[in-house]
């Protein structure tokens, strides 16, 4: 499962990210409000839960929370903040947050609250992605075509999952390299083309145009419908 963490204190963000990744979560981190807002809006169908600091450079956690809640009423949002008065808690919850954890906190408490909200807001349907005869189950790390298992490498699976999660939208090359390869600096993105070809060889029907479309100068896209 993927979590968005918006926290501007590096030590806290790193502590949370490392702990969650050890628990098997995929964690994207933003260290300011504008980046947090961008990732949250782009990833409404991707993130299972959002962790928000309140006081952030640029935009506040409250502003991000309100924007997310308007677009995604069921998305679990947890504030992690030093603000701890009753009025602060009430304001955060009234803005749309589901829960509120005060700094400093034990990681075990944060993890327990995350598990509670993920159970309370099951997202199983969003973990199964289909395109025609192709089905990807993210929880089971399984891809099938016409009911037959297709063996993919870890990177092939991650790339296909990213494309399917963003079905109907152009997946830009720089975003693919960030999300799938976890590279956040200038890098030769031709590796993406290699893995796209791997997927096409394993999943395309002979003599039929590939279900993964090349958008020249931008990236790749899987259409909304076959």
Descriptive notes:
- By secondary structure, the protein is an alpha/beta fold.
- 41% of the residues lie in helices and 21% in strands.
- It is built from eight helices and twelve strands.
- The protein has helices at 10-22, 33-42, 61-71, 86-95, 107-120, 154-165, 173-181, 190-203; strands at residues 2-6, 26-30, 49-52, 77-81, 99-102, 128-131, 134-137, 142-145, 148-149, 171-172, 212-215, 219-222.
- The strands form three sheets. It has a five-stranded parallel β-sheet with strand order 2-1-3-4-5, with helices on both faces. Strands 6-7-8-9 form a four-stranded antiparallel β-sheet, covered by helices on one side. It has a three-stranded antiparallel β-sheet with strand order 10-12-11.
- Strand 8 (142-145) and strand 9 (148-149) form a beta hairpin.
- It is elongated and about 65 Å long.
- The two termini are 26 Å apart.
- The relative contact order is 0.10.
Helix and strand composition category? alpha/beta
User: Major sheet, described briefly?
Assistant: 5 strands, parallel
- The fraction of residues assigned to DSSP E strands is 15-25%
Helix segment count? 8
Rg of Cα set: 19 Å
Major beta sheet, strand line-up: 2-1-3-4-5
Shape field: elongated
Distance between the termini: 26 Å
Q: Which sequence of SSEs, written as H and E, runs from N to C?
A: EHEHEHEHEHEEEEHEHHEE
Low-pLDDT ranges: none
The portion of residues assigned to helices is 40-55%
Total strand segments: 12
Overall pLDDT score: 88
